[in-house]
Amino acid sequence: MRIYLTLIFVFILIAIAFVFASQNSQMMTLNYLIAQEELSVASAVSIFTLLGFILGLLVALMGKLLTVIKPKRVKNDIKVIV
Question: What is the per-residue pLDDT across 28-67, written as a single tens digit (0 to 9) for each?
């Protein structure tokens, strides 16, 4: 049930971001370290929302992976001395 609520919340946030982006059609200049790009605010918001979602998902999955791996390693290190 928790996963469904999380997914609904994420989709609502993404929908709000895309509605905001669709209302802003002005052009903006995006400066990289070595390049410069001219794109609309809608495109920039969409790109950075997607990048943020992907990075957040990767960090969450990495944290989940570490919590699964760590107990196995600790379990093997404990030795009972009788």
Answer: 898 878 889 898 888 887 788 889 889 998 998 998 888 8
* Residue type at 29 in one-letter notation: T
| CA dihedral for 7, 61, 17, 37, sign (positive or negative) | negative
Under 8 Å between Cβ of 44 and 28: yes
The Cα–Cα gap between 40 and 24 comes to 8
Q: Which of 15, 23, 19 is nearest to 40 (CA)?
A: 23
Please classify residue 12 by burial: count the beta carbons closer than 10 Å to its beta carbon, then call 0-12 exposed, 13-18 middle and 19+ buried: exposed
Residues 6+ apart with CB under 8 A from 41: 21, 24, 25, 26, 27, 28
- 62/57 Cα distance (integer angstroms): 9
